[in-house]
Amino acid sequence: PHPQPEREGMFHRGPGLNLTSGQYTAPVTGYYTFTTTLHVVRREQRRKGQPCTGNRLRVLICVQSCRQHNSNLETVSRLESGSDLFTISVTGVLYLQAGQYASVFVDNAAGSPLTIQSGSHFSAVLLGV
Question: What total of structural domains would you count in the chain?
Answer without folding.
Answer: 1
